[in-house]
Amino acid sequence: MADAETVAAALTRARAVLVAADTPSPALDARLLLQAVLQVDHAGIVGQPERRLSHAEGELLAQYLARRLAHEPVSKILGVRDFFGRSFDVTADVLDPRADTETLIDLALRQNLPQPPRVLDLGSGSGALICTLLSEWPEASGVAVDLSEAALAVTARNAKALGVATRLQLVHGKWFTGVAGVFDLIISNPPYIPTAEIDGLEPDVREHDPHLALDGGEDGLSCYRAIAAGVAVHLAVAGRIIVEIGAGQAADVKAIFVAAGFAHSAEQADLGGHVRALAFAKSST
């Protein structure tokens, strides 16, 4: 019976279930779900293989596995995602922050910005970007903008949990609506999936990330055009704007910002070798 199953047996069974369903990273997912059920870390799993699950624990593991088999990401099941060494609350209202997006943080931290910088995050979602940068720069202040009130609520929770809430202003609006002042760094991970390609995305993304955070218009570039058109008045003279892009979009996004009067200043590739983040400065010409 499930309530008499050992930790080792439960882990083996969970992994087999996910392998049979051809889910990505079944071993990792099985371990993370079981750790959450038992409320232990990896060492807790390894160190007590013969411990038997209670009935309630067995039931909860079954529920988690059913949700994963329905393509719900582990982060959404557990409500938490690790990003740049910190834990963030995530919900169905926000994009699941992924490792590729950490390239934007890497690129931002390489910039020679006035200290402490003032940072603007356009489309903050979970707040992973702005809260990470405010954590990395303890004297910095920032503004987070999102069209979704529910997403802003997640940003607020994460900011409070990470101790940066007093340095962060939340603005409900689209892009620069309601934003005042100039910033040393403006960041954004905007929607960049062409509308026609959304139905072909992996179900983990298509069914569990908000389409508002995915749909980049007919060619996937509409948000970059909107940002480039409004950013100049909010970017400090020596400031930088850094955006995440989709694979293969680098040339098009560079062209959009150059046409708007900016100079491409730096870029960062993800672990797959694709240029994932682009930095721009105000053009000196």
Note down, in words, how this protein is organized.
The chain is an alpha/beta fold and 285 residues long. Helices cover 37% and strands 20% of the residues. The chain has 2 domains: 2-70, Orthogonal Bundle (Helicase, Ruva Protein, domain 3), CATH 1.10.8; 89-282, 3-Layer(aba) Sandwich (Rossmann fold), CATH 3.40.50. The protein has a 7-stranded mixed β-sheet, with helices on both faces. The chain has a two-stranded antiparallel sheet with strand order 1-2. Strand 3 (118-122), helix 7 (128-136) and strand 4 (141-146) form a beta-alpha-beta unit. Helix 1 (7-20) packs parallel to helix 4 (55-69) and helix 6 (102-110) runs parallel beside helix 7. It is elongated, with a radius of gyration of 21 Å. The mean pLDDT is 94.
